[in-house]
Amino acid sequence: MGSRDPRVDAYIAKSPEFARPILAHVREVVHAAVPEVVEEMKWSAPAFTHKGILCIIASFKQHCAINFWKGSLILGDEDRGTMSAGQFGRITTLADLPPDEELAGYLREARRLNDEGVKDPAREKKPAPAEKKELPVPEDFAAALDANPAARATFDGFSPSKRKDYLEWLIEAKTEATRKKRLDTSVEWLAEGKARMWKYEKK
To answer: In this structure, are 88 and 159 located in the same domain?
Structure first.
């Protein structure tokens, strides 16, 4: 059998008057549909769990919400869930709830998904964006830096974005003459500890 959490009782008791019968009714439907359900408090709201979260209920000043944790898999295209509105929109009366058997069906499906360890792609962590690789240092620029320890020390100590300023300026030169002039200027400024955009930096 499942379990009930006295904190859920307290939550319902402290909810606005209109919300109490709604929350209490949903709670009973959950226990009837999934007898082994366990009550918990998550994010300061009642959560019903079985091998993971099945759903969360919440009350607000003017409405209640039911949020199925794997709503996109349970309701498909009909899932428009948010924590504040839930999959069934803003619930203000018992009449706004889906029929008990329909709601129970969603709950049993939520249990099945958890039993089978099905992951909800909508809640899967997105991979962190790949780190942007720094531009390679051209050989002539690297040689010029190596020949000037002060310039090399400044360049190596700069942030990737400041190094990029110099590299792009050099690489984007249209002619060899322009490139040579920019290379010499870059080494000179770096030896003085200056960033490429030093003229525009606030003093």
So the answer is: no
- Residue 37 is part of which domain span? 6-123
Instruction: Report the 10 Å Cβ neighbour count for 116.
Output: 8
Give the pLDDT band of residue 119 (cuts 50, 70, 90).
confident
Residue 81 has pLDDT above 60, yes or no: no
Same domain, yes or no, for 112 and 147? Answer: no
User: To 10 degrees, what angle do helices 19-33 and 6-14 make?
Assistant: 150
202 lies in some domain: no
What pLDDT does residue 88 have?
Answer: 86
